[in-house]
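Field notebook, page 237. I keep forgetting to write these up properly, so this time I am using the form the group agreed on. The chain and the ligand, zinc ion, are recorded exactly as supplied. Prediction of the bound pose follows.
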Amino acid sequence: MSAVVLGAAAGAAALGTGLWGTYAQNSRLFGRALGHGPAGPSGRPYVYLTFDDGPNADATPRILETLARAEVPAAFFMVGRHVRLFPELARSAAAAGHEVGNHTDSHVKLHRRGPGTIRRELAAAHAAIQETTGRAPRSFRAPHGFRNPFVVPAAERLGYRVFGWSFGVWDTARPGAEEIRRRMRAKIRPGAILLLHDGDGYDVRGDRTQTAAALPGLIADARAAGYEFRPLADLLA
Ligand SMILES: [Zn+2]
């Protein structure tokens, strides 16, 4: 093999590693993102419920109501801009004891941004959440999980733990509430951090009512399979 071919192969391998670090939501290349929790006791395994991109005027109140009725804790990774639009929903989530995490201020894909923009995006959402809920966020999840070398240091400067997720069920594509529920039933496993969406990062009016409609059945399915919903805050220590 010629040196040129070898060089090209090494370049492709390096590029592949870089892309993996950028796009894999739990990759360690650009700093650790927690993608699952402990499995919990056998016979009563743990799962962690998370919602991204809210608050949303239609879906978030329904989801909060379901969580309250079922006594299930969840984490909401909120977009700063949406928190300023729906402060009462952000306050309700925090007041109910749910974890409210930072999901940037305007849901930008961070992997192509420099350190200044990344710091500003995180700081603006941090301020919005703290001023609205009275509590400083302690956790961060990057939009789409996309990161680069500047993201985790910016999050750690704010004292955050960075979260990925174990799996999503493409609820944003709106396949129907029953299908969302079915996919979750098929994929759930001990220690999983489940990704759902109570909002749309790019559209404040985005429709997430299917996710809200799927939630009661989804909780019932998980409990029937022996799972216990644990707060994401358990993983902050
Ligand atoms: Zn998002």
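OBSERVATIONS:
- Helices lie at 3-23, 59-70, 80-85, 87-95, 115-133, 151-157, 177-187, 209-224.
- The beta strands are 46-52, 75-78, 99-102, 139-140, 161-162, 167-168, 193-197, 228-229.
FOLLOW-UP: compare against the apo run.
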